[in-house]
Amino acid sequence: MRDYDIVVIGAGAAGMMAATAAGRRGCRVCIVERNEKPGKKIYITGKGRCNITNACDVDELFHSVMTNHKFMYSSFYRFTNEDVIAFFENEGLPLKIERGNRVFPVSDKSSDVIRVLSEACRKAGVEFLFHSRVKTILCAGDVPQTVKGVRLASGREITASQVILAAGGRSYPSTGSEGDGYLLAEQTGHTITRCLPALVPMNISGEEPSQMQGLSMKNVEMSFYTRKTGGKKKELYREFGEMMFTHFGITGPIVLSASSRIGSALESEQVYAELDCKPALSREKLHKRILRDFEENPNVSLKNSLGGLLPRSMIPVVLKISGLKGEKAVNQVTREERDKLVDVIKGMVFSVESLRGWNEAIITKGGVNVREVNPATMESKQIPGLYFAGEVLDVDALTGGFNLQIAWSTGYAAGESAAERALDT
What we know:
six-stranded antiparallel β-barrel, alpha+beta
Protein backbone atom coordinates (compact mmCIF):
# COMPACT_ATOMS: atom_id res chain seq x y z
CA MET A 1 0.00 0.00 0.00
CA ARG A 2 1.24 3.48 -0.80
CA ASP A 3 2.02 5.92 2.01
CA TYR A 4 -0.36 8.49 0.50
CA ASP A 5 -2.52 9.04 -2.53
CA ILE A 6 -1.04 12.48 -3.13
CA VAL A 7 2.13 14.27 -2.04
CA VAL A 8 2.10 18.07 -2.34
CA ILE A 9 5.50 19.79 -2.44
CA GLY A 10 5.20 23.20 -0.76
CA ALA A 11 2.89 24.56 1.93
CA GLY A 12 2.25 27.91 0.31
CA ALA A 13 -0.96 29.30 -1.15
CA ALA A 14 -1.14 26.93 -4.14
CA GLY A 15 0.04 23.92 -2.17
CA MET A 16 -2.42 24.27 0.69
CA MET A 17 -5.32 24.96 -1.67
CA ALA A 18 -4.39 21.89 -3.71
CA ALA A 19 -4.12 19.73 -0.60
CA THR A 20 -7.47 20.95 0.74
CA ALA A 21 -9.22 20.29 -2.57
CA ALA A 22 -7.74 16.77 -2.77
CA GLY A 23 -8.37 15.97 0.89
CA ARG A 24 -12.01 16.97 0.60
CA ARG A 25 -12.38 14.43 -2.20
CA GLY A 26 -11.34 11.69 0.20
CA CYS A 27 -7.67 11.31 -0.69
CA ARG A 28 -4.84 10.67 1.75
CA VAL A 29 -2.68 13.77 1.31
CA CYS A 30 0.70 14.84 2.71
CA ILE A 31 2.27 18.28 2.27
CA VAL A 32 6.07 18.30 2.38
CA GLU A 33 7.44 21.71 3.41
CA ARG A 34 11.08 22.70 3.85
CA ASN A 35 10.24 25.43 6.39
CA GLU A 36 9.14 24.98 10.00
CA LYS A 37 5.61 26.23 9.33
CA PRO A 38 3.22 26.85 6.42
CA GLY A 39 2.62 30.02 4.45
CA LYS A 40 5.82 31.97 5.12
CA LYS A 41 5.45 33.92 1.88
CA ILE A 42 1.74 34.51 2.44
CA TYR A 43 2.70 36.15 5.71
CA ILE A 44 4.54 39.01 3.99
CA THR A 45 2.15 39.57 1.07
CA GLY A 46 0.25 42.84 0.89
CA LYS A 47 2.65 44.34 3.45
CA GLY A 48 1.47 41.78 5.97
CA ARG A 49 -2.21 42.26 5.19
CA CYS A 50 -2.52 39.67 2.37
CA ASN A 51 -4.37 40.86 -0.70
CA ILE A 52 -6.23 37.55 -1.15
CA THR A 53 -7.71 38.19 -4.59
CA ASN A 54 -9.36 40.86 -6.70
CA ALA A 55 -13.15 41.22 -6.94
CA CYS A 56 -13.05 42.41 -10.57
CA ASP A 57 -15.01 40.94 -13.46
CA VAL A 58 -13.57 38.01 -15.38
CA ASP A 59 -12.35 40.12 -18.31
CA GLU A 60 -10.16 42.23 -16.04
CA LEU A 61 -8.93 39.07 -14.34
CA PHE A 62 -7.58 37.71 -17.61
CA HIS A 63 -6.34 41.15 -18.72
CA SER A 64 -4.25 41.40 -15.53
CA VAL A 65 -2.30 38.22 -16.31
CA MET A 66 0.88 39.34 -18.05
CA THR A 67 2.28 36.01 -19.22
CA ASN A 68 0.31 33.11 -20.74
CA HIS A 69 -3.14 34.40 -19.81
CA LYS A 70 -4.83 31.92 -22.17
CA PHE A 71 -3.36 29.08 -20.14
CA MET A 72 -5.43 30.31 -17.17
CA TYR A 73 -8.87 30.12 -18.84
CA SER A 74 -9.86 26.69 -17.52
CA SER A 75 -8.55 27.08 -13.98
CA PHE A 76 -9.89 30.62 -13.53
CA TYR A 77 -13.36 29.44 -14.52
CA ARG A 78 -13.04 26.27 -12.45
CA PHE A 79 -12.21 28.21 -9.27
CA THR A 80 -13.07 31.88 -9.75
CA ASN A 81 -12.27 34.92 -7.62
CA GLU A 82 -15.84 34.69 -6.33
CA ASP A 83 -15.16 31.08 -5.33
CA VAL A 84 -12.04 32.20 -3.47
CA ILE A 85 -13.99 34.82 -1.54
CA ALA A 86 -16.68 32.26 -0.70
CA PHE A 87 -14.05 29.72 0.37
CA PHE A 88 -12.46 31.99 2.96
CA GLU A 89 -15.74 33.40 4.23
CA ASN A 90 -17.17 29.88 4.61
CA GLU A 91 -14.07 28.97 6.60
CA GLY A 92 -14.83 31.83 9.00
CA LEU A 93 -12.59 34.61 7.67
CA PRO A 94 -14.49 37.90 7.13
CA LEU A 95 -13.27 39.81 4.08
CA LYS A 96 -13.49 43.37 2.79
CA ILE A 97 -13.07 45.00 -0.60
CA GLU A 98 -10.89 48.09 -0.89
CA ARG A 99 -9.92 50.49 -3.66
CA GLY A 100 -9.16 48.77 -6.94
CA ASN A 101 -11.35 45.80 -5.93
CA ARG A 102 -8.55 44.45 -3.76
CA VAL A 103 -9.82 41.87 -1.27
CA PHE A 104 -8.31 41.72 2.24
CA PRO A 105 -9.21 40.03 5.52
CA VAL A 106 -11.17 42.40 7.76
CA SER A 107 -8.49 41.87 10.42
CA ASP A 108 -5.75 43.10 8.03
CA LYS A 109 -3.67 40.14 9.22
CA SER A 110 -2.10 37.73 6.77
CA SER A 111 -1.60 35.35 9.70
CA ASP A 112 -5.38 34.85 9.74
CA VAL A 113 -5.28 33.72 6.10
CA ILE A 114 -2.55 31.19 6.92
CA ARG A 115 -4.47 29.96 9.98
CA VAL A 116 -7.67 29.44 7.98
CA LEU A 117 -5.83 27.62 5.19
CA SER A 118 -3.97 25.39 7.65
CA GLU A 119 -7.20 24.53 9.47
CA ALA A 120 -8.94 23.79 6.15
CA CYS A 121 -6.13 21.37 5.31
CA ARG A 122 -6.33 19.61 8.66
CA LYS A 123 -10.13 19.35 8.49
CA ALA A 124 -9.65 17.68 5.11
CA GLY A 125 -7.31 15.15 6.73
CA VAL A 126 -4.11 16.57 5.23
CA GLU A 127 -0.86 15.80 7.05
CA PHE A 128 2.05 18.26 7.18
CA LEU A 129 5.68 17.21 7.11
CA PHE A 130 7.82 20.23 8.04
CA HIS A 131 11.61 20.69 7.99
CA SER A 132 11.65 18.36 4.97
CA ARG A 133 13.10 19.05 1.55
CA VAL A 134 12.23 17.03 -1.53
CA LYS A 135 15.35 16.03 -3.43
CA THR A 136 13.80 13.94 -6.20
CA ILE A 137 10.39 13.19 -7.68
CA LEU A 138 10.35 9.42 -8.12
CA CYS A 139 9.11 8.07 -11.44
CA ALA A 140 8.87 4.55 -12.81
CA GLY A 141 8.31 2.74 -16.09
CA ASP A 142 9.25 3.44 -19.67
CA VAL A 143 8.14 6.49 -21.65
CA PRO A 144 5.84 7.88 -20.51
CA GLN A 145 6.97 7.39 -16.94
CA THR A 146 4.49 7.59 -14.10
CA VAL A 147 4.89 9.12 -10.67
CA LYS A 148 5.49 6.85 -7.69
CA GLY A 149 6.40 9.36 -4.95
CA VAL A 150 9.25 11.55 -3.70
CA ARG A 151 12.63 11.14 -2.06
CA LEU A 152 13.57 13.60 0.68
CA ALA A 153 17.03 15.07 1.26
CA SER A 154 17.19 12.83 4.35
CA GLY A 155 16.94 9.77 2.10
CA ARG A 156 13.41 8.87 3.15
CA GLU A 157 11.08 7.85 0.34
CA ILE A 158 7.36 8.65 0.43
CA THR A 159 5.21 6.71 -1.99
CA ALA A 160 2.19 8.23 -3.72
CA SER A 161 0.43 7.83 -7.07
CA GLN A 162 0.24 11.60 -7.62
CA VAL A 163 2.62 14.46 -6.88
CA ILE A 164 1.72 18.16 -6.99
CA LEU A 165 4.72 20.47 -7.36
CA ALA A 166 3.85 23.81 -5.72
CA ALA A 167 7.27 24.83 -4.42
CA GLY A 168 7.08 28.49 -5.48
CA GLY A 169 9.55 30.51 -7.51
CA ARG A 170 12.69 32.46 -6.65
CA SER A 171 11.22 35.66 -5.21
CA TYR A 172 11.80 36.43 -1.52
CA PRO A 173 14.33 33.59 -1.04
CA SER A 174 14.29 34.31 2.72
CA THR A 175 10.90 32.57 2.80
CA GLY A 176 12.39 29.40 1.33
CA SER A 177 11.74 30.18 -2.34
CA GLU A 178 15.15 29.38 -3.78
CA GLY A 179 14.08 27.76 -7.02
CA ASP A 180 13.82 24.16 -5.76
CA GLY A 181 10.68 23.65 -7.83
CA TYR A 182 12.50 24.45 -11.07
CA LEU A 183 15.25 21.95 -10.30
CA LEU A 184 12.70 19.24 -9.53
CA ALA A 185 10.78 20.00 -12.72
CA GLU A 186 13.98 19.87 -14.79
CA GLN A 187 14.83 16.50 -13.26
CA THR A 188 11.60 15.15 -14.70
CA GLY A 189 12.47 16.50 -18.15
CA HIS A 190 10.41 19.69 -18.12
CA THR A 191 11.58 22.93 -19.71
CA ILE A 192 12.04 26.03 -17.54
CA THR A 193 11.40 29.37 -19.20
CA ARG A 194 14.02 31.93 -18.17
CA CYS A 195 13.28 33.30 -14.71
CA LEU A 196 13.45 37.01 -13.88
CA PRO A 197 12.43 39.00 -10.79
CA ALA A 198 9.02 40.63 -11.33
CA LEU A 199 6.81 43.09 -9.47
CA VAL A 200 9.99 44.66 -8.22
CA PRO A 201 11.15 48.27 -7.52
CA MET A 202 13.42 50.12 -9.95
CA ASN A 203 16.83 51.72 -9.63
CA ILE A 204 16.84 55.23 -11.14
CA SER A 205 19.86 57.17 -12.40
CA GLY A 206 20.62 60.54 -10.81
CA GLU A 207 20.07 62.00 -7.38
CA GLU A 208 16.50 63.26 -7.80
CA PRO A 209 14.73 60.20 -6.31
CA SER A 210 16.89 60.25 -3.17
CA GLN A 211 16.07 63.95 -2.72
CA MET A 212 12.39 62.94 -2.57
CA GLN A 213 12.98 59.78 -0.54
CA GLY A 214 9.88 58.64 1.31
CA LEU A 215 7.50 60.75 -0.78
CA SER A 216 4.40 58.74 -1.67
CA MET A 217 2.17 60.08 -4.43
CA LYS A 218 -1.41 59.10 -5.19
CA ASN A 219 -3.54 59.76 -8.27
CA VAL A 220 -0.54 60.19 -10.55
CA GLU A 221 0.19 58.64 -13.94
CA MET A 222 3.43 57.05 -15.05
CA SER A 223 4.42 55.93 -18.51
CA PHE A 224 7.45 53.83 -19.39
CA TYR A 225 9.00 53.99 -22.82
CA THR A 226 12.07 53.58 -25.00
CA ARG A 227 13.14 55.83 -27.87
CA LYS A 228 13.30 54.73 -31.48
CA THR A 229 15.67 56.11 -34.10
CA GLY A 230 14.82 59.77 -34.50
CA GLY A 231 13.75 60.16 -30.90
CA LYS A 232 10.17 58.91 -31.27
CA LYS A 233 8.80 57.28 -28.12
CA LYS A 234 7.79 53.63 -27.99
CA GLU A 235 5.49 53.24 -25.00
CA LEU A 236 5.86 50.03 -23.00
CA TYR A 237 3.38 50.61 -20.19
CA ARG A 238 1.16 53.31 -18.69
CA GLU A 239 -0.85 53.29 -15.47
CA PHE A 240 -2.69 55.62 -13.08
CA GLY A 241 -2.37 55.12 -9.33
CA GLU A 242 0.26 55.29 -6.58
CA MET A 243 4.05 55.37 -6.54
CA MET A 244 6.80 56.25 -4.07
CA PHE A 245 10.35 57.61 -4.20
CA THR A 246 13.12 55.77 -2.34
CA HIS A 247 16.85 56.22 -1.75
CA PHE A 248 17.56 54.03 -4.79
CA GLY A 249 14.74 55.01 -7.12
CA ILE A 250 11.02 54.31 -7.33
CA THR A 251 8.52 51.74 -6.08
CA GLY A 252 4.78 51.42 -5.39
CA PRO A 253 1.91 49.69 -7.27
CA ILE A 254 2.44 51.49 -10.60
CA VAL A 255 6.17 50.77 -10.62
CA LEU A 256 5.83 47.15 -9.53
CA SER A 257 3.32 46.42 -12.28
CA ALA A 258 5.48 48.20 -14.85
CA SER A 259 8.51 46.10 -13.91
CA SER A 260 6.85 43.04 -15.45
CA ARG A 261 6.53 44.91 -18.75
CA ILE A 262 9.95 46.54 -19.06
CA GLY A 263 12.32 43.85 -17.77
CA SER A 264 13.23 42.39 -21.15
CA ALA A 265 13.48 45.83 -22.79
CA LEU A 266 15.97 46.98 -20.15
CA GLU A 267 18.42 44.32 -21.25
CA SER A 268 18.98 45.94 -24.63
CA GLU A 269 17.57 49.48 -24.50
CA GLN A 270 17.41 52.55 -22.30
CA VAL A 271 14.02 52.73 -20.62
CA TYR A 272 12.57 55.99 -19.32
CA ALA A 273 9.88 56.59 -16.70
CA GLU A 274 7.75 59.71 -17.09
CA LEU A 275 5.68 60.98 -14.17
CA ASP A 276 2.59 63.13 -14.64
CA CYS A 277 1.97 64.64 -11.20
CA LYS A 278 -1.36 66.17 -12.25
CA PRO A 279 -3.05 63.84 -14.75
CA ALA A 280 -6.48 65.25 -13.89
CA LEU A 281 -5.41 68.68 -15.20
CA SER A 282 -4.77 69.41 -18.87
CA ARG A 283 -1.74 71.54 -19.67
CA GLU A 284 -4.07 74.52 -20.21
CA LYS A 285 -5.84 74.03 -16.89
CA LEU A 286 -2.55 73.60 -15.07
CA HIS A 287 -1.30 76.85 -16.64
CA LYS A 288 -4.40 78.64 -15.37
CA ARG A 289 -4.04 77.09 -11.92
CA ILE A 290 -0.41 78.22 -11.61
CA LEU A 291 -1.23 81.70 -12.92
CA ARG A 292 -4.09 82.04 -10.44
CA ASP A 293 -1.81 81.07 -7.55
CA PHE A 294 0.78 83.59 -8.74
CA GLU A 295 -1.80 86.39 -9.00
CA GLU A 296 -3.06 85.76 -5.47
CA ASN A 297 0.44 86.24 -4.03
CA PRO A 298 2.41 88.20 -6.64
CA ASN A 299 5.39 89.01 -4.41
CA VAL A 300 6.01 85.56 -2.99
CA SER A 301 9.03 83.60 -4.21
CA LEU A 302 8.56 80.84 -6.75
CA LYS A 303 9.70 78.12 -4.34
CA ASN A 304 7.11 79.22 -1.79
CA SER A 305 4.27 79.53 -4.29
CA LEU A 306 4.00 75.85 -5.22
CA GLY A 307 3.06 74.40 -1.82
CA GLY A 308 -0.59 74.09 -2.75
CA LEU A 309 0.25 72.26 -5.96
CA LEU A 310 3.17 69.99 -5.14
CA PRO A 311 4.55 68.09 -2.11
CA ARG A 312 7.19 70.16 -0.33
CA SER A 313 10.07 67.74 -0.98
CA MET A 314 9.30 67.74 -4.70
CA ILE A 315 9.43 71.51 -5.20
CA PRO A 316 13.26 71.89 -5.24
CA VAL A 317 13.55 68.98 -7.68
CA VAL A 318 10.91 70.41 -10.04
CA LEU A 319 12.61 73.81 -10.00
CA LYS A 320 16.02 72.28 -10.64
CA ILE A 321 14.80 70.21 -13.60
CA SER A 322 12.92 73.26 -14.93
CA GLY A 323 16.05 75.37 -14.69
CA LEU A 324 14.17 78.00 -12.64
CA LYS A 325 15.42 79.98 -9.65
CA GLY A 326 13.34 79.40 -6.53
CA GLU A 327 14.06 82.86 -5.10
CA LYS A 328 12.51 84.65 -8.05
CA ALA A 329 9.25 86.49 -7.29
CA VAL A 330 6.31 84.97 -9.14
CA ASN A 331 5.34 88.34 -10.66
CA GLN A 332 8.66 88.16 -12.51
CA VAL A 333 8.07 84.67 -13.93
CA THR A 334 7.60 84.72 -17.70
CA ARG A 335 5.18 82.70 -19.81
CA GLU A 336 8.12 80.71 -21.12
CA GLU A 337 9.19 79.86 -17.58
CA ARG A 338 5.65 78.78 -16.69
CA ASP A 339 5.75 76.53 -19.75
CA LYS A 340 8.89 74.87 -18.40
CA LEU A 341 7.21 74.40 -15.02
CA VAL A 342 4.17 72.78 -16.62
CA ASP A 343 6.43 70.56 -18.76
CA VAL A 344 8.09 69.11 -15.68
CA ILE A 345 4.94 68.75 -13.56
CA LYS A 346 3.20 66.98 -16.44
CA GLY A 347 6.25 64.99 -17.53
CA MET A 348 9.08 64.48 -15.02
CA VAL A 349 11.44 62.06 -16.77
CA PHE A 350 13.76 59.55 -15.08
CA SER A 351 16.20 57.06 -16.58
CA VAL A 352 15.58 53.54 -15.37
CA GLU A 353 18.94 52.00 -14.54
CA SER A 354 17.84 48.49 -13.60
CA LEU A 355 15.30 46.45 -11.68
CA ARG A 356 15.97 45.48 -8.08
CA GLY A 357 16.88 41.87 -7.26
CA TRP A 358 15.25 38.68 -6.04
CA ASN A 359 15.18 39.78 -2.40
CA GLU A 360 12.66 42.49 -3.29
CA ALA A 361 10.75 40.78 -6.09
CA ILE A 362 7.17 39.89 -5.19
CA ILE A 363 6.93 37.17 -7.84
CA THR A 364 8.96 35.30 -10.43
CA LYS A 365 8.51 35.85 -14.16
CA GLY A 366 9.21 32.58 -15.93
CA GLY A 367 9.03 28.97 -14.79
CA VAL A 368 7.72 25.61 -15.99
CA ASN A 369 6.82 25.90 -19.67
CA VAL A 370 3.01 25.83 -19.76
CA ARG A 371 3.03 24.12 -23.17
CA GLU A 372 4.06 21.01 -21.25
CA VAL A 373 1.12 21.27 -18.82
CA ASN A 374 -2.57 20.49 -19.38
CA PRO A 375 -4.34 23.81 -18.61
CA ALA A 376 -7.57 22.08 -17.56
CA THR A 377 -5.96 19.77 -14.96
CA MET A 378 -2.45 21.19 -14.33
CA GLU A 379 -1.12 17.69 -15.05
CA SER A 380 2.15 17.22 -16.90
CA LYS A 381 1.70 16.22 -20.53
CA GLN A 382 4.91 14.21 -20.22
CA ILE A 383 4.57 12.40 -16.88
CA PRO A 384 1.12 11.18 -15.79
CA GLY A 385 0.47 11.84 -12.13
CA LEU A 386 2.71 14.93 -11.90
CA TYR A 387 0.97 18.30 -11.47
CA PHE A 388 2.13 21.90 -11.19
CA ALA A 389 0.53 24.80 -9.32
CA GLY A 390 1.32 28.39 -8.38
CA GLU A 391 4.45 30.42 -8.97
CA VAL A 392 6.47 27.48 -10.28
CA LEU A 393 4.50 27.88 -13.54
CA ASP A 394 5.41 30.42 -16.22
CA VAL A 395 2.40 32.62 -15.40
CA ASP A 396 2.51 36.03 -13.72
CA ALA A 397 0.18 38.98 -13.22
CA LEU A 398 -0.04 42.57 -12.05
CA THR A 399 -0.36 43.59 -8.41
CA GLY A 400 -3.80 43.69 -6.83
CA GLY A 401 -4.41 40.10 -5.72
CA PHE A 402 -4.10 38.60 -9.20
CA ASN A 403 -1.03 36.47 -8.49
CA LEU A 404 -2.63 34.88 -5.46
CA GLN A 405 -5.71 34.19 -7.59
CA ILE A 406 -3.41 32.29 -9.97
CA ALA A 407 -2.16 30.28 -6.98
CA TRP A 408 -5.68 29.50 -5.71
CA SER A 409 -7.03 28.57 -9.15
CA THR A 410 -4.12 26.42 -10.29
CA GLY A 411 -3.84 24.83 -6.85
CA TYR A 412 -7.52 23.95 -6.78
CA ALA A 413 -7.42 22.55 -10.33
CA ALA A 414 -4.34 20.45 -9.54
CA GLY A 415 -5.80 19.17 -6.25
CA GLU A 416 -9.15 18.14 -7.69
CA SER A 417 -7.61 16.63 -10.82
CA ALA A 418 -5.01 14.67 -8.86
CA ALA A 419 -7.74 13.41 -6.53
CA GLU A 420 -9.88 12.23 -9.43
CA ARG A 421 -6.96 10.34 -10.92
CA ALA A 422 -5.83 8.91 -7.56
CA LEU A 423 -9.30 7.58 -6.76
CA ASP A 424 -9.45 5.90 -10.17
CA THR A 425 -6.15 4.05 -9.72
